[in-house]
Amino acid sequence: MAAVESGHPAGAVVSHLVDHLIQASRAADLVLAKARAHVAARVMPGGKISGKILDREQHAAHGLAWLATYAAVLRELAQYAERLTASGRFGETEQLTAQIAAGEYLNQIAGGIPMNQGEFARLQDLGLSRSDAAPLHDCVLAQRGNTAEARARLTERIADGQFGDSGLDDTLADIAQTMRRFVQDKVAPHAHDWHRRNAYVPLEIVQELAELGVF
Asked: What is the largest CA-CA distance in the chain?
């Protein structure tokens, strides 16, 4: 059972969001399991990978890898939401970020994952039928996650400096905050001018980054 969500203004946020994120994760995992079985049957005759067949079926294999990545992201989103809810940190910004991402990923899985500008991983290319994709379409977040209202509200929050809780441990959160301050103070005020002049990033900026441990 998902932890009870803390009370934050509803607005563009889908109610019972944690439950819907879990539903999205499970739907993606169901689709992934079917796709993996179909692709494995094509590239592993007799249970052993054939390099020749894998080369011939590289589009399907590549698509399966992308699908597995998307499914992993949806699992992590659901777990992130559960962790933050349990600690009372799943606020409006965090909820909007999670629901928009989940809604977009569900629809990309169902309609075709863009692997590059001209190549898409479509479920039919992985051996799946329309009915196999039904769990994706049944998800509430496929319809109500990535809406214009949700995106507009999240944009307002970010513009107001509300970037949300990343869920990182204290050390990683401190590193992220340090880098954010560095960018705001040393990079953002000059970045457009560097770009306009097609100039190199000044060496002193690179040196300061090195002192922060980036390199």
From this structure: 60
